[in-house]
Write a structure and sequence with these properties.
- The longest helix has 26 residues, at about 400-425.
- The chain folds into three domains: about 95-240, 2-Layer Sandwich (Nucleotidyltransferase, domain 5); about 270-320 and about 425-500, 2-Layer Sandwich (Nucleotidyltransferase, domain 5); about 325-415 and about 505-530, no CATH class.
- It is of the alpha/beta class and about 525 residues long.
- About 40% of the residues lie in helices and about 20% in strands.
- The protein has a seven-stranded mixed sheet, sandwiched between helices.
Length: about 525
């Protein structure tokens, strides 16, 4: 039955007073359509997986378009089903995707090698050389590390390269005809100068002067997309782009397009964390903590990625590959035990029971140690990982301490990079916003994270909206550039959003520090496990 609200939304959709955001994540492509009050009108998604091809992780371009069309088609279908109108006009749109990686094209716009994603770690030599040369951390994931590694490896395609971009930049280019990139995503390609909101000119010169690069028939300046800050128009949806996104021919061309962004930037927007001294913690299979800086870090720190907000301000990111995989495995064990005893519990009940026990344990988890490393972890100096639980004979082994050790362990790797920023570089953080499934149990993960970072942790009612919603908000911002991005988010998007804050408890902070020192001191246990436990079998 149609309601007055649905009729209102239908009128908004028909008039094109909407914004679309689509984000291509590692396992899911999600599309969200919002109105001018930032309500989600409809969504659609498409599941996909990367493939290992010739030793490198990739997605084919055919997969990209199949996924984009699938997610958009699902969204358009839900619009028609709920509001009884076709989706013919969209006011503004934007595309985001997993950052970094390597998409290289020749002068005829032909893809030279399969898309190399952020997961690939074959760029260690380039990472070390460029970081040393620039005196800025150039992570293995970055596009420039992929290009330089291809140069060092004398790959045949290198002389033919005419353009390199990210996944979001590629999609935007195909839909709008413009080779541009949001500055946040661009900051994962090559170092950004936050003063002029562009690539660092001195570092571009330095890169071109490297002997292996100087012999190439191109300059790095000619290969990179043009960075744009949030609010700058990045073109419009062309007729060909409309047909590419919606092969049914229903969608009209002409939608104004926001600069394409990376998933870190859309996460900042979705959590209202773009103002200096704020940040967010995105927690899932992996975890990253992002802090908006008042100025660039003074020294080279391989534990911190120097990136930028969508507005072009400097930010530091501590990224850990491992987070919930080991924790979920242990919870699964307790689920099996409960079922063996005839007790049936929902996931919410099971996680809630175990997580709340963690608040009853000894402040330092009673001397227990856990390593959550399913895979390698750059922050801990590990090329591979092995999950390990260990304890001394005099430790206080009980379920409350065990669960506290699990949560402390999960937040420990990302704390390494955060400590570099806050304790070595003196970065000031007023508050951090946590988002991800681990925060669904009220208070617990918030309280543990507040102890780990010694910083207030806020969880907002909108945090579950995610990057696609954040990208739709960036598209809407195109019509509100009379305000800074930070002011726009504060006054319009998040003005009435509810949130809850956990401040760090001094006893919890001291307890985590005791655990973290034990965790760091005992890393040889993990290293021995990597050497002695086979990866398979």
């Amino acid at each position: 039955m149609e309601t007055n609200t649905d009729r209102h939304f239908a009128e908004e959709i028909e008039a094109g007073r909407t914004s679309l955001g689509i984000e291509l994540g590692s396992t899911r492509i999600k599309a969200i359509l919002i109105d001018q009050d930032y309500h989600t009108l409809a969504d659609g998604d498409f599941a996909w997986e990367n493939q290992l091809k010739d030793g490198l992780w990739t997605y084919s371009l055919e997969q990209v378009w199949e996924g984009l069309q699938g997610a958009y088609a699902a969204l358009a279908s839900r619009v028609r089903e709920r509001y009884c109108v076709p989706l013919t006009r969209i006011g503004a749109m934007g595309f985001s995707a997993m950052m970094h990686g390597y998409l290289a094209f020749d002068k005829d716009d032909r893809l030279l090698v399969p898309f190399r994603t952020w997961r690939n770690t074959n760029t260690g030599q380039a990472h070390e050389s460029l970081s040393r040369t620039f005196q800025v951390n150039i992570p293995e994931r970055w596009s420039i590390a992929h290009l330089y590694q291809a140069v060092l490896d004398h790959e045949e395609h290198v002389p033919e390269v005419a353009f390199i971009t990210t996944l979001a930049g590629y999609v935007h280019w195909q839909l709008s005809g413009r080779k541009v990139l949001g500055i946040g995503d661009a900051s994962g390609m090559f170092p950004i100068d936050s003063n002029n909101h562009g690539f660092d000119q001195a570092m571009l010169d330095t890169f071109d002067s490297l002997p292996e690069v100087a012999s190439q028939p191109w300059s790095i300046r000619d290969l990179l997309p043009s960075p744009l800050v949030a609010g700058e128009e990045a073109g419009s949806l062309t007729e060909a782009g409309a047909r590419l996104l919606d092969p049914t021919g229903t969608l009209a061309a002409g939608s104004v397009m926001a600069p394409p962004e990376g998933d870190a930037g859309t996460g900042m927007v979705a959590t209202n964390s773009v103002r200096p001294r704020t940040g967010n913690v995105s927690a899932g299979t992996s975890i990253f903590a992002m802090v908006v800086l008042e100025h660039r870090l003074e020294h080279l720190h391989p534990e911190v990625d120097p990136v930028a907000t969508p507005a072009g301000d400097p930010a530091g990111m501590s990224h850990a590959n491992n987070f919930t995989s080991d924790l979920n495995a242990w919870v699964g064990l307790f689920r099996d035990f409960a079922q063996a005893g005839g007790l049936r519990m929902s996931d919410d009940e099971l996680y809630g029971t175990l997580f709340n026990l963690a608040l009853q344990g000894d402040k330092d988890a009673g001397g227990l140690i856990n390593y959550c490393f399913y895979s390698g972890e750059f922050l801990a100096g590990l090329e591979e990982g092995r999950p390990v639980f260990a304890r001394g004979p005099e430790s206080h082994m009980n379920l409350a301490n065990f669960m506290r050790a699990q949560l402390f362990s999960a937040f420990s790797p990302v704390t390494i990079g955060m400590d570099v920023m806050t304790r070595q570089e003196g970065v000031q953080v007023d508050s951090l916003v946590g988002h991800g499934g681990i925060f669904a149990t009220p208070k617990v993960a918030q309280k543990i994270l507040a102890a780990a970072f010694d910083t207030p942790i806020r969880v907002m009612s909108t945090a579950a909206e995610g990057g696609a919603w954040g990208m739709a908000v960036l598209a809407d911002y195109l019509t509100h550039t009379d305000q800074t991005l930070a002011d726009y988010l504060d006054s319009r998007v998040f003005a009435d959003v509810e949130s809850r804050v956990e401040n760090p408890d001094p006893a919890d902070v001291e307890g985590f520090r005791t655990f973290f020192e034990r965790f760091s001191r005992s890393l040889p246990i993990e290293q021995a496990a990597v050497r002695s436990i086979p990866l398979e079998g």
